[in-house]
Amino acid sequence: MIKQIAVLPGDGIGPEVTEEAVRLLEEVGKQFGHTFQFQFADIGGCALDKTGTPLPEETLQICRESDAILLGAVGGPKWDHGPGEKRPEAGLLKLRKALQLYANLRPVIVFPALVNASTLKPEVLEGVNLMIIRELTGGLYFGQPRGRKETDEGLAVVDTLYYTEAEIERVLRKAFEIARLRKKHLVSVDKANVLDSSRLWRETADRIGKEYPDVKLEHMLVDNAAMQLIRRPGQFDTVVTENMFGDILSDEAAMLSGSLGMLPSASLSDSGPGLYEPVHGSAPDIAGQNLANPLATFLSVAMMLKYSFNLEQEAQAIEQAIHKVLEDGYRTRDLAQEGERYLTTTEMGEKVRAYLKQEVPS
């Protein structure tokens, strides 16, 4: 099997974690008899510096012609003060929209070996394994009009929260399908007591839910959901919500796993390549120091194998290798306790690849 993968290292620690992820994919190919071909392209701040745009047309074309996309991270203080369309993040938003990557899947798994890395009590975290599904191409981040203008009362700004019923329906349908494959319990998060968009969201969820009688549908207001994620996270299995709520809740959920460095994600469309990236940002404070945690990127690679290539066994081999590395006490700096020795980015990559070899059936 030959698969084409677009690699967008991006900014900050992005190049470091994607380099290790490419090595991991090469090892998977070697162990399981697959061929992965990589084509590298620029996005974000590095693309801005080279071409004046955060998403060059060449990058977009490479992505369209690939079977899957691996992204590192974008952004950094160097580009924080440019206009909106010249910010690194604008390139990522444009890529998601161009490829119609409307469903963002963010699994949150508490590895037993990392229970003490979280600030929450171990008994609160026991057995936590949930999936947050975030609508990714609509809502406040894309709605028009937006911007700022001078008024008689000073500067005024507007951001528009815009959704069509069809946009809401397709991500809810995806969420019901995923919930059906998990524990058949779907929590739909909204703000229906205040927002018209949320009321349409809730109405659509109820309508679509009738097509999935085997899935229990529960509605939860976003402020309550934020509290419940910390109070009793084990009550959740599959969660679906709109763009901004999903952005915030999935980052909050990072505290369950102990670090943003442990959270992968997949962004999927109805056709075309999926985009796989760690949830963490570009971490410019540690960029180039070989300190970044590559495990979220490795878990994103596992999601790529599972969702884009239907390679379930290979995905499980990566996940099991990571489990065993952590169980044997290996940590990167973000996961280490005070005074505990930690591995560099490249050392962690070497460990996971070594453990991967042990997971491959002879």
UniProtKB/TrEMBL annotation:
SMART domains: Iso_dh (SM01329). NAD(+) binds at residues 76-89, 281-293. The record marks 141, 191 as: Important for catalysis. Mg(2+) binds at residues 223, 247, 251. GO terms for cellular component: cytosol. Its cofactor is Mn(2+); Mg(2+). Binds 1 Mg(2+) or Mn(2+) ion per subunit. It is found in: Cytoplasm. Homodimer. This is 3-isopropylmalate dehydrogenase. It comes from Caldalkalibacillus thermarum (strain TA2.A1).
